[in-house]
Design a protein that fits this description.
By secondary structure, the protein is mainly alpha-helical. β3 and β4 form a beta hairpin.
Amino acid sequence: MHPVLLKIGSVTIYSYGVMVAVGFALATVLIYRRAPKFNLNREKCVDLAITILISGIVGARLLFVLLNLRFYAANPLEIIMLSKGGLVWYGGFIAGLVAMLIYVRINALSFWSVVDLVAPYVALAQGFGRIGCFLNGCCYGVTVAPGFPLGVVFPPESDPRLPTQLISAALLFLIFAILVIWQNRRRFIGEIFLAYCMLYSAKRFVIEFFRGDNPRLFLSLTMSQIISAVIFIAAVAVFALKARRWKNATTISK
């Protein structure tokens, strides 16, 4: 693996941080360009993206620390060592969503329009983040037989493992493509965001079966799978409700 991308004197540039930065920058540029089509102010959307990034990183790290509390209680300085990995996406998702709710309320923006705009580019940024995980050597998959075509050895492990990071990245880029196309065919507000919630949670639920670094908590499910199931069910329910309202409104207007 290549956790360190470049080292100049005392300055160390980590591959994970670079990939996260690339994903965020690209997502922000695309959001900026797309904002007017959702009747949203470009500058406010950029500020919102920065707010989501900062709160998301804090939330993702906090949930990881809570899930590994015994280790971090004994090694408190490790909490700020983000270069070693250790972020749980759903912690970032929840924190980012709360920050977004506060931001759109303060700036009098439409919440559903904002999340419909942002959703595809969140998946895009996640994809780059997963490539960063691969380079960092974290979030790896289960062990596979020696000689398995996709097997990768992640130090300090000695057995080849499934590169679930790259599989996740590919699926996230696919979700991004689907949602960008879907944006142009949006029927009701909230449709794109809810579709993202369904697609991502389904992807995460399945991929967790092939992860080799997450503990099983309940019914042989990981914490991420439990959260994925809750989000998927909630998103399906809200999507069905909004779709029904849109259909009824369309019927009446005819």
